[in-house]
């Protein structure tokens, strides 16, 4: 057995292409920022602040310490060579206001948006005042304003749908602020998508779909700002690197979903589902246009129509529409695969399998085809409930 060598050209390429993994360690300030930097004192202050604040926040759904989330976000930004101190400071507190509003909502049992807005405004004033006072001593008040603006852009108000909060980022006119927010959001979604241990298949797909939406808009942004020329093995700009790593983390998550579904006892039809997708993709140019389910279609290609529309409805909390589309798929699978006598759980697994299988292929196209984006799947289109399509 030859000795492992880590100085070869092959291993260097591996280090470029490797998928990032989260850490459960409580990373220290000195591991996350350069103490010689101008805003190092602000970063250290924010680190200690959220360390204390997060002690009152609930454990993450995967059972991990909530404090590890902002640390992982900063850690991934550092791995992407993000050196901007404002971005790193914003990453530390990107969830702070949302988490405190959630905690207030739960403890006080508040459902009124006006009251939640009022409480959120109080939090913003307190945070702004606190950081401004701190930075007046260190003569870095303009930086604090940038940090606050970036975190505001990343914070979702309770009255708003997810699409609207993401739209605010990508439709921002200030390019410098927009890029900071995009970088933090990508790092945030990398760690979130790596933290789905206790989620069901349906919950996992929902989280992955949110990533797909963000990644598609990031791809549009990268094309517009940096052009289409891209080496899939290298990422020159930090935003591009974060985009690629988020794509890979999302692809991994879709793979896990498919494995979970196969474990439910549907392997007998695995190749049929895959080949139906290939037929849909090549014969019907399926990845270039997603339409509604066609009830007249009898070939299993029909299962790959309308996936974006279905999860778009889920993200907009249009439960009746979402359940109706899923019900049509269940009925079709029940009839088409009648010979197998699949249970309800297995029929669900079939649907989740084909959804994850199709969407991971879209992720691969976003990652490796410089020209590919899902047109019509952008912020402004979906936020006005416009037509949803998928095309090159």
How is the biggest beta sheet arranged? Answer: none
- Total separate domains: 2
Specify the overall morphology.
globular
Specify Rg, calculated over alpha carbons. 22 Å
Task: Tell me the number of helical segments per DSSP (H or I, 4 or more residues long).
Answer: 17
SSE topology string: HHHHHHHHHHHHHHHHH
Structural class: mainly alpha
Overall helicity: 55-70%
Q: Give the strand tally.
A: 0
- Distance linking N and C termini: 47 Å
Report the portion of residues in β strands. under 5%
Describe this structure in words.
This protein has 17 helices and no strands. Residues 384-392 have low confidence and may be disordered. The protein has two domains: 19-165 and 172-195, no CATH class; 199-392, no CATH class. The protein is mostly helical.
Brief sketch in words of this structure:
With 392 residues, this protein is mostly helical. The chain has 17 helices and no strands.
Note the main attributes of this structure.
single chain, 392 residues, mainly alpha, 2 domains, 64% helix
Please specify the SSE layout and strand pairing.
Blueprint: H1 9-17, H2 29-32, H3 40-53, H4 68-79, H5 85-92, H6 96-108, H7 113-138, H8 141-154, H9 162-170, H10 175-193, H11 201-226, H12 238-262, H13 270-283, H14 307-315, H15 319-336, H16 344-368, H17 379-383
